[in-house]
Amino acid sequence: MAERTSLAVRDLAVHFEMEQGTVRALEGVSFDLHAGRTLGIVGESGCGKSVTARSILRILDRPGRIVGGRILLDPGAPGETDLIAMNAESERMRGIRGGRIGLIFQEPMTALSVHYTVGNQIIEAVRQHSDLSKAAARDRAIELLREVGIPRPELRVEAYPFQLSGGLRQRVGIAMALAGDPDILIADEPTTALDVTTQAQVLDLLRRLQQEKGIALMLITHDMGVIAEMCDEVAVMYLGRVVEYAPVLELFTTPRHPYTRALLRAVPSILATPRQRLATIGGAVPHPGARPAGCAFHPRCADFMPGRCDVGAPPPLAPGHAGASCFLEVPA
Ligand SMILES: Nc1ncnc2c1ncn2[C@@H]1O[C@H](COP(=O)(O)OP(=O)(O)OP(=O)(O)O)[C@@H](O)[C@H]1O
């Protein structure tokens, strides 16, 4: 059966207008999310992973602005919708945010309030995206807590977030993300704040939910171990661009972009110690406001070709096709 593309991001560009000038946080970012599959987005801090997620959900922080591209929900289907063309605060976009597309944060307290019980917060989220009565929504909240593996959910529904451990709180965060019955989930570093054992449990949970529900999952991480364990395809980002896109096995066996190779070299014991965080690679990521000419990675690149890589930008990737945006891929 042909896989269904749930979301297609095309040539997404995001700018932050700062006093010091325009920061081009994203430039020409393209990728697809497919039902039942997981796309990993990986790269060092500041490469644009969170800005990508927040753009899809239309919750970009000011002064961030989407200045180009398309974000197509159900691309090619009769109901295809470009999320960029929608008013971020419109009722329809609010329905999509948390309804069709759920978001799991690194720190679950970003999504939870300290003032209300977890039950009341999930009930509220369920009711925002359905016509259920309060009593039926409460039953649904208990069912969601059970689904995410919270023991004794009929008691825990009355707990306040601060009464739960970090791991249980993240499970509640996942239950909140599932409250609108989404078919697309965006998880932004969902396990970074957790200890190693809890990380493994939360990743298992995400994988199980994704497979059972056929969800299209976009998983943002720094962590090549998480990528290896969880993802079908991977987009490697550097300074606001996707520099390599590949099926996960190809990425680890035949990485094509020197940046991907550097990331993998920085985690030499990847197979021995999964979930190890990326070590830093040589040099620092430049600020997007001071993007180097040519290929932005050239000052740190082991394969730098003077007169080529510092002059023109390598051709961008064709969306959905494996490859690297690098002059090594292009005949001289
Ligand atoms: N609120 C903001 N104001 C100004 N610039 C911002 C803001 N948020 C993001 N940026 C710019 O966008 C770039 C990308 O940020 P983003 O948060 O997407 O990176 P990231 O890859 O998610 O990093 P991390 O792994 O640290 O979360 C930043 O380097 C910064 O220049």
Automatic annotation (TrEMBL):
GO molecular function, one term: ATP binding
Membrane topology according to the record: Peripheral membrane protein
Keyword Cell membrane assigned: yes
Keywords on record: ATP-binding, Cell membrane, Membrane, Nucleotide-binding, Transport
ABC transporter domain residues: 9-264
InterPro entries assigned: AAA+_ATPase, ABC_Ni/Peptide_Import, ABC_transporter-like_ATP-bd, Oligopep_ABC_C, P-loop_NTPase
Pfam family, one: ABC_tran
Gene3D superfamilies in alphabetical order: P-loop containing nucleotide triphosphate hydrolases
Subcellular locations according to the entry: Cell inner membrane
PROSITE patterns for the chain: ABC_TRANSPORTER_2 (PS50893)
Major place of residence: membrane
Similarity comment: family membership: Belongs to the ABC transporter superfamily.
Protein name in the entry: ABC transporter ATP-binding protein
The organism of origin for this protein: Neoroseomonas terrae
